[in-house]
């Protein structure tokens, strides 16, 4: 079986964390006899055709180099909202991805199209489905569902795109519920992406009082809640902050200074997967006070490293963390409860080691590449059978 992946986020180099789960799925599917090819946007400095771990990615140009800023920055939505030039670039991106796929057909005749995110890939996928007469699978990862709730026209486009898919998957049960709320006829299949358990594994010395935060420094990821909790905790841990794409430390440094916690923060740029795994293994716990997180892949990676997770009981994080068994969950937005949970964990004799060990066992059952690939290969076969009838 040959499957064409459409994605606007894909690793720019072999160790890049951006969109790495798309590459991980493509690699894992080989064990199921599925050959994949990926179409993703270009960016300054990227080759038009590359191969990572035996998976070929074909990149397309969609604007002059200085305007190719939509992909890989983590700010696509904000750019398009705030700039007519970005809106034009987005229209060009959609058209260029479609044209690239049509040209690729001569050398790679896909049996099925798998679009990651309903927009822009899912929209392009509906055109390819009609043009080629092949089934379409669309996977929602989180930010795209939040986009669909944003306005009437976008919601209508969301429903129209999903209605043309042969199968819709989401990476968490929360996203499935949100999808059904916006597009009631759609019945999503919950099917997360794979994670490398041989990369994210336990081992090595772990700090006693070092917390870790990984993500953009924005309201959705909850960095402000963490800083405010840090200011009222009885303990005085160090917090390592791995800054996600589209953010810089200056975004929150003024708040950290005003709360008197700036001296306890250690800043890291966006790290490679291997470097991030090292940070998980060295930390006492991961803190993830995010709201409406599509899944919380960072939490899953940390648990695979047996690093306990303290998080808000929101979004897809409730799929990953069983409170008191594989981590600690608190009410979303409750800074005092977050501070108490972190203090309690740091006062545990084992610093949450039992929670982390249980978390790894749970994550292996969900995210092991072979299990995920088996699930998606079955979804593809069902879509092909349904499309044929």
Description of the molecule:
The chain has 389 residues and is α/β, with parallel strands linked by helices. The protein has two domains: 2-194 and 368-388, Glycogen Phosphorylase B (Rossmann fold); 210-366, Glycogen Phosphorylase B (Rossmann fold). Helices cover 44% and strands 17% of the residues. It contains 15 helices and 14 strands. The protein has helices at 20-29, 76-82, 84-104, 118-132, 143-148, 152-163, 173-182, 223-232, 250-259, 273-282, 297-304, 317-320, 335-347, 353-367, 369-388; strands spanning 2-6, 35-41, 49-52, 55-60, 112-116, 136-140, 167-170, 189-190, 210-215, 238-243, 265-268, 285-288, 309-312, 328-330. An eight-stranded mixed beta sheet has the order 3-4-2-1-5-6-7-8, with helices on both faces. Strand 12 (285-288), helix 11 and strand 13 (309-312) form a beta-alpha-beta unit. The model has no long low-confidence stretch (mean pLDDT 93).
Task: Itemize the secondary structure elements and their pairings.
Elements: E1 2-6, H1 20-29, E2 35-41, E3 49-52, E4 55-60, H2 76-82, H3 84-104, E5 112-116, H4 118-132, E6 136-140, H5 143-148, H6 152-163, E7 167-170, H7 173-182, E8 189-190, E9 210-215, H8 223-232, E10 238-243, H9 250-259, E11 265-268, H10 273-282, E12 285-288, H11 297-304, E13 309-312, H12 317-320, E14 328-330, H13 335-347, H14 353-367, H15 369-388
Parallel strand pairs: 1-2, 1-5, 2-4, 5-6, 6-7, 7-8, 9-10, 9-12, 10-11, 12-13, 13-14
Antiparallel strand pairs: 3-4
């Amino acid at each position: 079986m040959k499957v064409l992946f459409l994605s606007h986020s894909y690793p720019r180099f072999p160790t890049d964390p951006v969109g790495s789960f798309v590459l991980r799925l493509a690699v894992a599917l080989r064990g199921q006899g599925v050959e994949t090819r990926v179409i993703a946007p270009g960016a300054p400095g990227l080759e038009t055709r590359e191969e990572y771990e035996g998976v070929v990615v074909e990149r397309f140009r969609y604007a002059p180099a200085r305007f190719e800023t939509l992909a890989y920055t983590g700010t696509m939505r904000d750019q398009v909202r705030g700039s007519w030039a970005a809106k034009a670039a987005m229209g060009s991106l959609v058209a260029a991805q479609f044209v690239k796929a049509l040209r690729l057909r001569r050398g790679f005749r896909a049996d099925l199209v798998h679009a990651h995110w309903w927009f822009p890939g899912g929209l392009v996928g509906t055109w390819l489905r009609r043009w080629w007469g092949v089934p379409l699978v669309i996977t929602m990862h989180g930010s795209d569902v939040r986009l669909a709730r944003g306005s009437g026209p976008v919601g209508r486009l969301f429903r129209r795109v999903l209605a043309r898919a042969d199968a819709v998957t989401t990476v968490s049960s929360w996203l499935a519920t949100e999808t059904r709320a916006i597009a009631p006829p759609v019945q999503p299949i919950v099917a997360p992406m794979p994670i490398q358990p041989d990369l994210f594994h336990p081992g090595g010395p772990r700090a006693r009082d070092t917390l870790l935060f990984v993500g953009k420094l924005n309201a959705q990821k909850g960095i402000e809640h963490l800083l405010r909790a840090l200011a009222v905790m009885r303990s005085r841990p160090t917090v390592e902050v791995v800054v996600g794409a589209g953010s810089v430390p200056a975004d929150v440094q003024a708040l950290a200074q005003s709360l008197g916690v700036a001296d306890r923060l250690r800043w890291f740029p966006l790290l490679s997967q291997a470097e991030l795994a090292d940070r998980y293994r060295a930390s006492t716990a991961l803190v993830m006070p995010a709201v409406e997180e599509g899944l919380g892949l960072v939490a899953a990676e940390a648990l695979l490293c047996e690093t306990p997770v303290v998080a808000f009981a929101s979004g897809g994080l409730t799929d990953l963390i069983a409170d008191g068994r594989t981590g600690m969950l608190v009410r979303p937005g409750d800074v005092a409860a977050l501070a108490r949970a972190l203090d309690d964990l740091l006062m545990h004799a084992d610093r949450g080691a039992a929670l982390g060990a249980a978390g790894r066992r749970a994550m292996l059952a969900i995210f092991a590449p072979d299990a995920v690939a088996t699930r998606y290969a079955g979804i593809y076969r069902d879509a092909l059978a349904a499309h044929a009838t």
